[in-house]
Amino acid sequence: MATQLVHLPEVERLSPLCIRILGGNPGKFSLQGTNTYLLGTGSKRLLIDTGEGKPSWIAALKRTLEEENATIESAVITHWHHDHVGGIPHLAEAWPATKVYKNEPEHGQLDIVDGQKFTVDGVSLTAVHTPGHTVDHMVLHFAEEDAMFTGDNVLGHGTAVYEDLGTYLKSLEKMRHLFKGRAYPGHGPVLSNGPGKIVEYIRHRQQREDQVLQKLRSENPHSGSGAESKAWAVMELVKTIYHDVPQSLHPAAAGGVVQILHKLQNEGKVSSDEDDKWRFTGRSTL
User: What sequence ranges are listed for the domain Metallo-beta-lactamase (predicted)?
Assistant: First the structure.
């Protein structure tokens, strides 16, 4: 995957109101690294996310603020994962007056509620609770650009992982109606058509769900035969559905397949046995 990634500068001005600073933590799942965003035009700026606390990130942030003749007034955290919160102690050390906002806050942090507004000179943000990737996940509508900071619900490359598929899809559906412009993701490059990418995500998830259902139904006996359909282990499904994906990524893909199976189970279409094997048991619209 790394060879497919476009190069992103460590610091880049993305618009007159937004500068991206990479977290210095590239990897298989973090892509070019965690995106952190410095917003505003005045002497007091707002920061979105903090990376995982790499020295290169805090150094780049300090340099940028010196060049901008600015300081950080507040930081808004999209969700609890380490690669988004790890730099918070650096903020407290370098800028002790910084207010840190996070849904389901930890000690010393301030809560974020759905619909909460955040403003600095030139920038107005509205927080929207969009669980799925994590239960505390927030996205931020950027009024001046009719854009959205999508956290890890939508990435600039590939697709996102999630804790609960049904909840995640509801959040994507909510998000796509809230803006018309860019998506500023938690990882990867900016997406020029944010709502269009979200529609792609929804369709992709539906295609994967259809593939799982089709595979489970493929050896389902004809109605009235009295025999049960074939039971599939999760990794058996992964190896057939993700046959074109490197095997090293199959464990991650398995997590997605399990989420699909749980969604289908809740809909009465599949069931699992004591050996954690899955079979088709209901009707589908395929």
Answer: 33-187
- Judge contact between 182 and 188, C-beta under 8 A: no
CB 136 within 8 A of CB 102: yes
Contact at 8 Å (CB) between 127 and 76? yes
Same domain, yes or no, for 218 and 186?
A: no
Residue pair 144/17 in contact (Cβ under 8 Å)? The answer is yes
pTM score of the predicted model: 0.90
State whether 110 and 29 are in the same domain: yes
Active-site residue identified among 83, 273, 275, 276: 83
Q: Quote the CA–CA distance of 73 and 255 in Å, as a whole number.
A: 38
Domain region containing 67: 2-192
The CA-to-CA distance between both ends of the chain, in Å, stands at: 32
Write the pLDDT tens digit of every residue in 120-147.
Answer: 999 999 999 999 999 999 999 999 999 9
Cα–Cα distance, 116 to 29 (Å, whole number): 30
